[in-house]
Structures are given as C-alpha cells and as structure tokens.
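Repro:
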Amino acid sequence: MKVAKRRDAIFDAVQSGAADVAALCTKFDISEATVRRDLQALQQDGRLLRVYGGAVAAPIRHEPEESLELRKSHDSEGKARIAHRALGFIEPGDTLFIDGGTTTDALAQQLPKDDSIRVITNNLLALQTLSARGIAVTLIGGELRAGSMSVYGSLADMALERLTFDKVFSSADGIDAEFGVCEGSIEQAWFKDKLFRRTREVYMLATTEKLGRKSQMNWSPIHRPWTLITDAAPESHPLLAFRNHPFVSVVTAA
C-alpha cells in the first residue's frame, strides 16, 4: 500500500476507534516505527492528535466568519485566475446561477457582454457589474446577510423551487472532498443544498486555502457529479482527496 493511502486508512481507523499503536500495527501489518511515523505525519497535517500510546481525532475548530472587506482583499489574483478558468465552461444561451461570495463576484466581473446569457443571483456584490455589461439579471429575494452581501432564508428557498439553471457557480468558506461544502450559517448551507438540486451542472470555485478547510459547522453535501475549479497546483497535496473522489472533476487555474 502506498504511503498516502496507508495514512488515509490509518486516519479512518483512528476515527473509527482503533487509536492505539499496537492495534494499528496488527490491522495494517506494519511495524511500530512505521505507525509512529505515520501518526506524526498525520498530526503535522492537522488531522490527528498524538496521545500516549496512539492518537485521537483532531477537534474541528470553528473559526469566526471573516468580514466581507477582508475576504474581498484576500487573494484577489487567485480569485481572478479561477474566474478566468471558469469562463471556459460558459456557453451562449446559458442560464447561470451566480451564488454569493467574492470569488463568484470575480466571475461576474469577467463575464462577456452577451445578451444571450441570463444570470440569476443572490449576490448583491455582482449586481452593478452584471447590469453594466448588459446581461439579463434576475435577483432573488430573501434576508440580507451583510457579511457576504447575499440573500438567504425562506424567501430565497421558495424562489429556488420555481427556478432551474444550466450551471451553478458557487463558493464556500471551505470545501472538503468527504463532507462537501461548509458555511457560516445553516441558512447558507441549506440554500446550497437546494441550489445543487436545481441545476444541470455544479461548479465550485475555491482558492487553495479553502480546500479541506472545516472552519465552520454547517455543511451541505454534494451527492452528485461536480467540478472543482481552483488555483491550487495540479499535483499539490490538498487536491489528492478531490482527484480520488468519484464525483469530482478537478480543473486547475494555477
């Protein structure tokens, strides 16, 4: 078994309760020294915590949601590259949903002036840019979330029940290959869950730091094929889990 796969298997075993070194040696037929090296590497990755005789799962730290101004200024070049790569998946005549967020706003800023494209959005940041480009825009209603200048809630959910899209372009606080998309509120996670069910194609736009990030407690799984567009280097470690996932197609803009 390759080292990366063995360490993933050890991580899963610890999560399931096989947390002591002796049990891991027996389970994987490897030496104690190898187990300890693997546990040390997993701890350095932030996936486990070493304890006497073995390891335990690392606690998930739920960080405060970043302010809008901070997100807008952070890694703007990476977001622009991701947006440019995403343009290649948009065709004349498409009906798009552009979700809330600064990375999706970067996509709105690069959309071509094409009157055959229709955009439906909950992203107030993108409105002025889209209207200036002569693109037909439908803004859905809902409760304003000032931290992202987007709308969510029951009215937004009701609007989705009456709409379908060719393609959804979305972003998130974190994207994990196993758990899906994490957000700062349950309303955002629930909205994405509904959104992913109303479209033919799902595209998640994520800078490198968002990959594998579990900074919030609210999750929306993606139980369907989807495309990850990221500025992560093609062979980088954060992309391994996504490349091995049966539902995910990875596109890099590095």
